[in-house]
């Protein structure tokens, strides 16, 4: 059996005809920039997030940049965030001239550790930028309390979390601005790059909109240095079709995640992702990320352990890399999100972070593995994936 980490084939056969019609409608309308499709998407997306305004743009990265700029965060300012995320989270902060400050993650859910935020605050700190990583919502209730107490702005990175909620309130509606990506593999994916910033604040919405169109409040009058960052009408038309499916897709992702949980929860050496159904949260499961403990091999009985160690020596790789390779040989393709933490990326070497400065983040980068997940993944495929994981732990 072959199981891809992500697939669009099933989705295309389900709604392909509607997508074709939407694309052709835009193509023949001659309205390629702005227009009805864009306006209607912004309106529906704002509604789905439970906010008054949604400003569409070119990408999730641009949404973060527009949010930071609209909040007047720039050179000399610090923004508290996490190093365990996609690079764009910190890159956006750097691109507006501010400095990302990385706080260690919470060992329970791998999200920014709320108990460590306050130690990182100083007189230059302007904002907190939490990431709802893999679709798991940060405890926004608590985070907003910390922000309020310290007079900080909050920008939510919701790129992986379309459809997630904390205490019944969608992510992207808690902070000053919520930043969404519609990159094809996200929960709500366009057919190319696309993004949006959500807010309840009319002034922020206006500023972000102007910045996204060359800092231009009226035609050919520019009062700020902005960007060319609009959502294409073609992408808006595609997103209009897909948005109506989002909640059903997230529900299917939840079912798949619960099934993986049940199939995999009893393996020593493997940690299934945090989920607590007693907490008032809705996880959007963009990724199902297991953790293959570095010392997984040491927990094995002696006879199996020596075989495993020799296998590891031959492959010169970690338990996680070994599992990934074995799954691949059985047709199961997995992805590592993320192999290198942001603070240790060459682009940030001038910050001088040493290996060991964020030990848990670094350890996660050596141990995480994303199993295949997408709304149409079948139960058979999941059982197959789990069997291969079991076989690996049995073998080693
Ligand atoms: C995808 C992603 C982004 C960037 O979104 P793009 O649309 O690709 O620019 C930012 N942050 C996180 C956490 C992401 O996963």
Q: Please give the count of helices.
A: 12
Helix proportion of residues, in percent? Answer: 25-40%
CATH class of the largest domain: Alpha Beta
Taking the sheet with the most strands, its summary is: 7 strands, mixed
The proportion of residues in beta strands is 5-15%
From N to C, what is the helix and strand string? HHEHEHEEHEEEEEHHHEEEHHHEH
- How many domain units? 2
**Distance N terminus to C terminus?**
22 Å
Using the coordinates shown, work out and report the CATH topology of the largest domain: Aspartate Aminotransferase, domain 2
Relevant CATH superfamily of the largest domain = Type I PLP-dependent aspartate aminotransferase-like (Major domain)
- As a whole number of angstroms, the C-alpha radius of gyration is 22 Å
Q: Tell me, briefly, the overall form.
A: globular
